[in-house]
Every structure is written in C-alpha cells, then in structure tokens.
C-alpha cells in the first residue's frame, strides 16, 4: 500500500476509534454517576460527572455554562446548578463538538432562557425557540455536529457561532473571552477565559490525567495542542511560588493551575521531539512503540485500556508527524 494511502487510512481509523469509543459510551451506567461540584474562585464552579468537566459561571444576570456532558446526565447536572442559583441558564458555550461535551446541549437549551427576551419563534424538539439559552461555539463545531451520524438534537446545535480567533461577551459583571485554538484536539476547539474570576476552561486541549487526544479526522494535530497549551500558559498568572493564581479547569481530570499546564506542555514537546527523531531515523511505527517514547510519563498520563491508550497516542503523533 502506498505510504500516503497508508497514513490516510491510519488517521481515519484513529478518528473513527475516537468517535465510536470516546464520545458515545453507550455502555455507561449513567444512573450510578454522581455529580460533584467544586467552587473554583470568583463566580466560577467546576462540575464533574461523566464525560467532560462542566464549568458554571453564576451571577445576578443568570448562569453561563461551558460544555454539557452527556444528555443522560442533564437533569442531574441541572439539579446541582439549581442549588447554586435559581436564575435561568442564559448561555451554553461548547469547547468542541464531541458528544461527551455537547450531548446535553438540547436539554440545557430547553432549561434555559435567552437574555434577549422570550419571544417564541417556533418549537423544535419540544422546546420553544426564542425562549432557549443561546449556544455559542466556533463555526467548525456547528459543521462537525451537523456531520455526526446520528447527530445530537437540532435544538442542541450552536445558535451563535464565530469564525475569527475569538468571541467576547460581558456577563455577570465580568468579561468572558472564547478563544479559538486552531487544529488542536480538533479544528473547532476553544478555551474560555473568565477574566475577573481568573479562571480558564480548556476543553480537551488539556486534560490533567491523560495524554492529549488528537482527533486527526476532525482536524486535530500535535502542534496545535502545543500551541493551545502555550496560549493557556500565556494567559495564566501564578501566585506565590508558582502555585495558585489563575485556575485551570481541564477537559478531564482535576482542577489545575499554571504549573500543571507547564508540566503538561513540556511533556508533550518532549514526546513529540522523541518521536520526530525516531522518524528521522526511519523507524517504523512498531519500532517507535517498542522504544517507548513516553517513558517517564506513563504513570501519570498513560493508559493500557480504555478509549485513549498510550499506544493510540504514540500512533497519532507518529502519523501526524509524517511517519510511514
């Protein structure tokens, strides 16, 4: 098989694996999932369940959330948010298109209420359009959601998209920046910076407990991941002894600060450089995997089973760097 075709097939298989395994999880027993709520700082909270972490900003104007986990967990998540505020959900922001971050969109749109008024313009999926929360995302998120089979409910598709490098709004007394990170985890990734609270919600460009997931089928790349991590570091300001200060809510895993992201970014660069050097030596994928370029980091970020193993990560980086 020609190398170009071989690489294309490998990328497609990785993408299909991600789509079918990481972001559907039909075998998940959602009834046993408990939602944990962690006050972060300022007006921002972190909610952990199954799927991606959810960020909630609470204030007098209402509630803004970042990502919505799976549809099956929407009522549990909403119940915990209602404990924090009886104000309506005004905005939902999606960091990217995968269903473990967007599956609950339609439910949270229905739970919410537009800040621009409640004039009803129609009913879709049982929800009154015009009275829903607005769903914000980069335009590539909308395009990817539209391509999904099966897609999430139409009422959960983004209603307000942007195509430049950022979108900004002022809500609950603070500036909120939605910053596009090109070709990182996917081609539609955004990080969300709550400027007054000094909190960054990263989506899956950063996870504290897993090697970066590179969805090549949706435009992801190792270099884009590194650039996104560097952007987070540029935005963050640490407190005493490089601890605390700006708090970082990852796509998956525990609450972090800048030092955690620096350690993670440096790890990704080191592994990229190791694999790139092996490719220059004309090592095959099997030889690279056997050489263990992730050695020294597997205890913290590696996995032998599940949707994203260490071997899958090495394979993705190898293919992205042009290995044959």
Task: Look at the structure and give the CATH class.
Answer: Alpha Beta
Oligomer: single chain
Count of DSSP-assigned helices: 10
CATH superfamily, please? Ribonuclease Z/Hydroxyacylglutathione hydrolase-like
Q: Find the CATH topology.
A: Metallo-beta-lactamase, Chain A
- Outline the biggest β-sheet: 7 strands, mixed
- Helices and strands, in N-to-C order? HEEEEHEHHEEEHEEEEEHEEHHHH
Rg, nearest Å: 20 Å
Number of domains: 1
Strand content: 15-25%
Structure commentary:
With 324 residues, this protein is α/β, with parallel strands linked by helices. The chain has a single domain (33-265), classed as Metallo-beta-lactamase, Chain A. It has helices at 3-22, 74-84, 99-102, 105-111, 139-147, 222-235, 258-280, 285-291, 298-301, 310-320; strands at residues 36-41, 44-48, 54-59, 62-66, 89-93, 122-124, 127-129, 134-138, 160-162, 166-171, 174-180, 190-194, 199-201, 247-249, 256-257. α1 (3-22) packs antiparallel against α10 (310-320) and α6 (222-235) runs antiparallel to α7. It is globular. Residues 1-27 and 117-129 have low confidence and may be disordered.
What attributes does this structure have?
alpha/beta, Metallo-beta-lactamase, Chain A, seven-stranded mixed β-sheet, 324 residues, six-stranded mixed β-sheet
